[in-house]
Amino acid sequence: FSHVQLTKRNCGNCASENVLSSRSAAAQCSPYSRCYVRSTMEAARKAIKVGIIGGSGLDDPDILENRQEHAVKTPFGEPSDVLVSGKIGEVDCVLLARHGRKHSVMPSNVNYRANIWALRELGCTHVIATTACGSLREDISPGHVVILDQFVDRTTKRAQTFYDGGKDSPKGVCHLPVAAPFHYGVRKVLIEAVRELQISHHETGTVVTIEGPRFSTHAESCIFRSWRCHVINMTTVPEVILAKEAGLMYAAIALVTDYDCWRLDIPHVNVEQVMDTMRKNSCTAVQILRAALPKIASIDWSSHLKDLQDEVARAVMK
What range(s) does the Nucleoside phosphorylase domain occupy (predicted)? Predict the structure, then answer.
């Protein structure tokens, strides 16, 4: 999204005259020099910031230390709520309540583009999202955690790209590859965390995202099972698509609240049940975050970020 103007200056690291710099950045050597490579890798390592998108039950800013609120304006309107920056342990984080802190925004009306844009504007490199979901499988029980790796999109009303031809939008048309929509490296860290915590979990899972706000019919739920989907929710799409388009490494912790209505031997899903289970699951999600964030901070993600940004750049036709 950035349009950087490069000029020659003296390098702040080795005083070479053969340098490139943006107007807002310190001058550095050419990309072929050891000085440049070392400084950019160090900058990437230091600049890690994790956006946390809290779904139902996990939108409490009290998990952050040294909290500071940010009202971010974007070309796509306002995010769901103010963003709250701070630290979890030693890791810089930004928390955003997907539905607003009072859960006042229904899934179809969430401004997914503004949410992702705002996280990127505040310097996030990663996004970990939490999401309530219903189970479509016997072996995925309420209280379990699923580290999602695929999705099926059944939404109908949501903008799915930043490249929409608008006046303030990025230029071009983006045909984004999403064969692997969730970032493998971040998923791997989350899986390591849930293993260490000995939480009942599933290391892969396909989520079907429906438009909502209603729940599924029995017929729909059975169709989704026949498609080999594992869980069902209302928010992962287009959030995961937009995060990848924005060059953010995105992974999702799906917190199972209930069995969807394909089962006839138990009461069907209702809001009270979902919210009660989600409040319990939120403690699990916080445990996972606290275990995963130090691992994320210890990894050099510079090559991952570059690969992701290059993939998006290749997808844009201008």
Answer: 49-293
- For the chain (318 residues), the mean pLDDT of every run of 10, in chain order, is 40 45 41 44 67 74 89 96 95 95 92 98 97 96 96 98 94 97 99 98 99 96 98 98 98 95 84 76 91 97 96 95
Tokens of 230: 């594992």
Q: How many residues does the chain have?
A: 318
Q: Where are the domains of the chain?
A: 1-46, 49-317
Residue positions annotated with a catalytic role: 258, 260
Question: Helices 236-245 and 302-315 meet at what angle, rounded to 10?
Answer: 100
Strands 91-97 and 206-210: unpaired
Type and span of the H or E element at 36: helix 34-46
Dihedral sign for Cα atoms in the order 103, 105, 108, 111:
negative
Predicted pLDDT at 150: 99
- Please state the pTM of the whole predicted model: 0.84
Amino acid type, 175: H
Fold of the 49-317 domain:
Rossmann fold (3.40.50)
| Amino acid found at 126 | H
CA distance 189 to 212: 31
Residue 219 per-residue DSSP state: H
Handedness of CA 145, 146, 147, 153 (dihedral sign): negative
Beta bridge partners of 152: 208
Tokens of 125: 């490199």
Burial per residue of 70-106, b for 16 or more beta-carbon CB atoms within 10 angstroms, e otherwise:
eebebebeebbbbbbbbebeebbbbbbbbbbeeeebe
Please, what's the b/e burial string for 202-219 (b: 16 or more CB within 10 A of its CB; e: otherwise)?
A: beebbbbbbebeebbeee
| Tokens standing for residue 171 | 């230029």
